[in-house]
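Workshop exercise sheet. Pairs work together: one partner reads the sequence aloud, the other fills in the structure field after running the prediction. Swap roles for the next sheet.
Pair: D.N. / O.F.
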Amino acid sequence: MHTPSGTSLPVMPVVPAAFAPVPPSASAGARLPVFEGTAVVPPADYLPGLESAAPADEDAGWLHDALLGPYSADIVGYLSLARRCGGPVLDLGCGAGRLAVPFARQGFRVEAVDRDAASLERLRAWGRRIGPQVSRLLVTTRADLAELRLRGRYRLVLLAGTMIAAVPPHARPGLLREIAARLEPGGALAFDYTAHGLRGLSEEPDRTWAFQVPRFDGVEEWTVARQVFGLDAMSERITYHSVRTGKVRTERVARTTDKWIVDPECLAAELDAAGLRVERRRAHRLDERTESVLLVCRSAA
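Structure field:
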């Protein structure tokens, strides 16, 4: 459901001088905290996510976890749905096992799909650390969701963490048809996405956030995220500029993730064409221009 858990990342008193973030245009008249002469948006209960970007190295996992952490409460709702639907469960865009491993710990057989080999290895290693009773329930598949071809049949399919936004619009109808064809009778597809007000995006297509990444390895990491929306292509690009300061050296790292804006009307038509009907819709307002939406869909047949 991708809703805030009520936790926020800590705001520290000083942003590294290496940063020079640009404040969002809509905040020009607002009272923003000023760090070393630079105005930035403070961390909210959610942050622009890294859902479609695979961690490029081990250190990138800290940023990935920080961005998904405030939304971790979604596992409660998805587990509740799994208990009603049963298994096996298909976790699409599973990452390092944020949902797949806890599901296996609850006794569900899970096929976990992701395009990033390093993330899948982290998932398998996590399962092995817990023990064979969990690792034997986890099957990993490396695949791009835009080209997904499934072999099994499933009682529950998950696209959690707004992973639907990581699928190009031209590939989304095919993915939904593939999922619908592999659902067991009575099975469900559950996914969440961020619904943006298009007027708000046109008025403020460029947004900047600054926050500290919680780390527990002796490294201090600050990140400025620049989020740019392109309404013509219904695209979203987020570039993360990070400064990591350790005992010996300071390094600067930049990484970019590309996603797509989900149009609710187009999505509804695609679900209908795939033979899926929306059984439940839940929306949570994130701010005056954005809401998080959870959909549970079943076969219309």
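Discussion prompt: Residues 75 and 102 are 8 Å apart (CA to CA). What would you look at next?
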